[in-house]
Write a structure and sequence with these properties.
globular, 5-stranded antiparallel β-sheet, Enolase-like, domain 1, single chain, TIM Barrel, alpha/beta, 10-stranded mixed β-sheet
Length: 400
Amino acid sequence: MFESLTFAAVAATPHSEWTFAELRDADGATAVVELTCGAETARAASLLAELVSALADRDDVDETTPDAALGLDTGLIAEDRALAAAVSALRSAIVLCRAVRNGVSLRRELGGGEYAASVPLYANVNRGLLGSARRPAEFAAAAETAVREGFDTVKCAPFDEVSPPSSPDRILELARPGLERVAAVRSAVGPGVTVLVDCHSRFEEHTAPIVAEQLAALEVGWFEEPVEPTRHADALARIARAVPMPVAGGESGYGESFFLDLVGSGAVDVAMPDVKYCGGVAAAHAAGRQVIEAGGRVSLHSPSGPVAQLAGAHVTAAIAGDGEVGTPLEYAAHEADWRPRALSPPERIERGRLVLPEGPGLGATLDWDEVRRRGRVWSPWQRGRAVSGLTNSSPARRKQ
């Protein structure tokens, strides 16, 4: 299947790192995917190397079958974030290499959006504020800068001081600094800009509606993940019925049916698959189409590096088909000013839209000179030289 695997890791900021993998198949087609997975990134990379090694002599595996070929159960993958990231990267690489061999863009390979020149983005200003004092004025300035750059939607994750458990009588006191940050953003950008709020699952069923009432007065556009959808979907559905604005979420979910179930149960109005975790680009596209057909909305989760961003943009265009994208795609604004140069050709963000490059697959690859200058590169596997192989005790070999 694949002939070689090369990893690269680059520090975006002192607080965040992007990890990429380039896979080359027997026909010489290459795919670059992003494998960033927080504290579990190293394990996800190790698992990807094991999966690629295990499939080295298989030529009958496509993006829908690596789970079965490896003896993996969907439930096991869904419960193991690092394994989900590794499988998602593998699946995306299979689709990308096929697009390269077919000489078409990823969006066309997925079945739509081939005429899209760009997709709209919203500016997530949170990652650019990591390591700062995170005062309301800093949130306001970041949002104001994004609007000057052409974004008409901004998102923040303001509730640093809140973590469960809490109680209804104390929640507004704990959430007050976060509410002040949102208020500062709203004041800075004015009424014509949509403000989205990500809660990072810091609330509970009995506290989320209280905070949502305060956010409603600030006219926020959505209330993202007040509780974790993969663990508390029923509670999220009850919260969604109780709050006055749309609920968004699902960033950690794996498998197409997860997102359709979230929308069908009323837990979210906006499903947020992430190509790095949901099962890859084809799964994100299929889930997105299913959600839209069920009457929901889709906005891919993507506070990521430029590779996952570009993959998410192709998926977003493919979901929309020949129409205009209804809900913009996430973009981590102001995280690293050199970010565009990590790709060749460089990433292009113009007036709040990501311009899709021409060419097969993603239409871009890593700029290896820039990556080596800023990070580290290593090759754990190539055909005939597996550094680590699957064993019976490996997490990637266990079945539920």
